[in-house]
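Give me the 3D structure for UDP-glucose 4-epimerase.
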Amino acid sequence: MKLLVTGGAGYVGSVCAAHLVDAGHDVTVLDDLSTGHRDAVPDGAEFVEADLAEAADEVLGAGFDGVLHFAARSLVGESVQRPELYWSGNVVTSLRLLEAIRRHGTPRLVFSSTAATYGEPEAIPIREDAPARPTNPYGASKLAIDNAISSYAAAHGVAAVSLRYFNVAGAHGRFGERHAVETHLIPLVLQVAAGTRESVQVFGDDWPTPDGTCVRDYVHVDDLADAHVLALQHARPGHHGIYNLGSGTGFSVREVVEACREVTGHPIPAVAAPRRSGDPAVLIAASDAAKAELGWNPVRTDLSTMVGDAWSFAQSRRQPV
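Predicted structure for UDP-glucose 4-epimerase (321 residues):
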């Protein structure tokens, strides 16, 4: 298939683009490089450096079999402080993409959604039919796009799939996680191992969990990419499928830190800090629907594998994660 990957120079987008190229698809990456990296575009993919909101109509005019939409702002804290960036950068831009998809009759769309659409969970594990009550503008913006996609699928026959990620980890060879502002736990812990950060903060050690620290569901970025390839194959015209992607296993902050110590061989000091407002104690995905309907089978669910791949990527670049 001829596929457009928006945000394909970012972490998840670049890994998915690499998987698509390896699967024999004709891939075009569109990215403005505001947070992505030119060297993260896989060999064999065409690259268009442009603002998605401005370029979507012209680019899709060339005719594509599908779009995989990763381009977005994704910092929760920033979304609280500057919500206008998220309503404009995420929602308005995505609406322009949807309009371009409608105008040019692009038949398939796979959207990078998030577990942040659920907010504070009422039950664990979290299923797709759980109430969607996001607690920050980032999650709210992604939920708004999900809702828009549902209406476009129903009205215009688009075959659409939204994939709601939990905590993405790991790397795919030379494609890995590198952000100017890092907020994710595993890269932060690995920065301590690499010597670019003195210690890692543990936000709360008195949560109602086995070891007192927050528990999160981590999914390997390669397993995530596999789900996108399957979503393209199983998308149905006029239908919008929404699927959680997680390993179904929770790892605590202490377990993550200990896994990083074992993989890197570094002591990694951890400092207790107060709880952060809005942090749920436990977030674990129910991914049964993705397994049953998409045929998805995550196989890289071991924490040491995810940490090891992320560490290998960091070491190969010889710079902070």
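The first helix runs from residue 11 to 22. Let me know if you want a second pass.
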